[in-house]
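From the shared-data thread, chain only:
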Amino acid sequence: MGQSPQAGQGGSYCARCERQWGSGQNFCPGCGHQPPGFAIPSDQSGEMTSTELSYDSGGRAPYRMGGVTWGGWQVIFGIVLVMLSLFSAAAAALVLGSFYPEQEDAVATWISVHLMALAIIGTVWYLGLRHCRYPLAVLRLSRVTWPRKRTVLLMFGVLGASLISTSIYSGIVEWLGVDELAIPVIESDIFFDGPAVLLTFQALAFITPMSEELFFRGFIFRGLLPKMGPWWAIAVSALLFSGFHLSVGVLIPIFITGFLLAWLYWKTGSLWAAIGAHAGQNALALAAQAFS
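Structure, as tokens:
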């Protein structure tokens, strides 16, 4: 078992993730764990100081998450920047896609997804993570290890609940006959032909979940959490996530999905769990359309 290290000692190991700490370190570079008795300014580490955190009997930091260096104003500014980037990326992608008329929509979609991912990473870094000593630890993205069974079960549970809620919503809309509220069908034109279809899955089932979870859960939810508390922060981040998709037909189902993903992040303390559930849903939706 690892032991809580003391500052200035070498050969010590993190009590949470078993990673060895270097001499003079008092904050785990792997998982962000800080033992009792050491205070790290929040403007450097992105975590609350030891006086602000409550520890369990084993001296481990809270299982979920601590404070961050950004708040409401940074969140608002980040939303504005990302929305502007959304339209800019779409315009640039359409122009670049026009050079490949045979697969114009597929190329434009692929380019747009990657441009948006770069914009989101840049926004989150500039407004929040650049002030953190260990940014991946702050987001709960550090050191990928085999997750606990509970985390895996919750991830698949959220994925299943999201799929079921989407199916129920579609059934209700179809029963009511309100076509305006129907979930838009994924256009077949966004898929590359042949083996290149893997590029479509790479963009929409990997890059998109990564970037959206980074922004809506890692940045927005975490930025709202200290002031709003978990449930309001979950609801507001889910509402923003839903509106970001700019379609009336997905407002309700994506709000539910966003709510579940934010809850999963809060409950497990792992952004990887939310990314996994999000990626699973996108991959299943793409597969259903691509191979139908």
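The chain has a mean pLDDT of 81.
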